[in-house]
Amino acid sequence: MERLIADLPGWVTSIALIAAAITVALLVHRLAFSLGRRAAAHSKGQLDDIVIRRLYRPARWLLVAIALSFIQPGLDLGTSGTRAWAQAAGLLVPGLIGWMLVALLGVIFDWVLLRADVTVENNLRARRRRTRASILHRVIVFVVLSITFCLMLMSIPSVRSIGVTLIASAGLAALAVGAAAQPALKNLIAGIQMAFSEPIRLDDVVIVEGEWGRIEDIRLTYVVIRLWDERRLVVPVSQFLEKPFQNWTRETSQLLGSVFWYLDPAADIPRLRAKLEELVKANPRWDGRFYNLQVTDTKPEAIEVRGLMTAKDASTAFDLRCDIREGLLAYIRSEMPEALVRTRGLLDFTPRPEAGSPSPSARS
To answer: Is residue 98 exposed (0-12), middle (13-18) or buried (19+ Cβ within 10 Å)?
Structure first.
């Protein structure tokens, strides 16, 4: 048997060793992750499930690369084959390591999201953690991919030599690239700054460009806002650092809502105030903090009556305002019609002289 193997051509032996190494690596990978899944099934936590899901694919090919590196000295490749093997390894090994690092970063990111539960009522701290983790995760992944790509290029001799010849003009090239990529770099730096200054967080209620919506996603260079009518508003990150905007959930989600009615100046305000108290206290959307009704302005034909009420968040406050507005209007229509705006005029019943008859002054 040994003599038969020795009589085989070198390339056949090399192919057999490569196939055996790949087979062993795949078997080891399958066995290891099967045991890992069994252990995760009996575990109460979800971190092990995240690790298995994120590392399954990159670990497979990394084990294959490690197995091939072990058998490489025993392969009959020749001078050109050894050079091609080294060049392929210079491209693949940094790529696989970068892939594994990105997967590990994904494990950390998923673990942070798992611990930051935004479904609770007071989710300010959870949204802060999710926002910071999301931005930093994208920044670090971008850096890892950039370094990986540079290492892969440096393994190519022709690219390395071209880089050496072009290093003299690197200053001018950097100026040109910087001028061309100024908006992108500006938003990238603004995204990193926003991860620490936190003017907005995920699920914040904001008003930007006159539109009301919630922060749905924060990218490195732009922010996606889900508007109230299911549209999406895409805004550059730099706008949140350079232009004013409204954030209704910056410190807390509690909100003070207002409702306006325009009524007749003769309306009985104390009676309306008592009805507002009844409506607000009977509504389950009111959080019990504050309510009020006042005359805030007078106009020639009507008075402006403002009602204030508090709710736990912006959407609840909007529904509460609609309920109180409809309820008080129904009460005015059925019980206080005299509070509706009326147009008054002065009627003059002085008799006028008939046509052809002399006026009183002419008769005198």
So the answer is: buried
